[in-house]
Amino acid sequence: MRDLRHAGIAHETVSRLVRDGLVSRVARGLYQSADAIPDRWSSFAEASALVPKGVICLASALQFHELTLQMPSAVWIAISRAGWKPKFEYPPIRIVRFGRHALEQGVKPHLIEGIEVPVFEPAKTIVDCFRYRNKIGLDIALEGLREGLRSKRVTPDQISESARATRVWTVVRPYMEAVVADGA
What we know:
elongated
């Protein structure tokens, strides 16, 4: 709705379009063309539109980078520690709080359905999965590490650098050594 207002479209016009079936209301403040065909990343674009200062992270970022076979039931989004936590029903979102430095490091914007969606890069995502292993599960973090190294989307140096920058190298190191020793 915010984008429609900036484009000069009145709320009444949007209401009429919804009533006439030309536009559908996806969630509060979130509209799309009634004939739009959502792609597999639609929920990321919707979540990013509803949480503009958030970054797609953890299992959702692993899924985006094709480093896991897991299909998270909700979109994982990182926000700042002091940031406002939005409340809405759709799309299902899991909020994780990051410090300022951790939230700014390794972010790359991707254009999904005309919306700029910030997603953490693969190495940062894998490291964050180890950092939040109690929330998402160690198995998902290990799967991301193995697949990232096997597919050559990340290098051991990138993971080491990211882990040191976020001060979780002591957690990641034994797993990294085991996976590299096994040949990923």
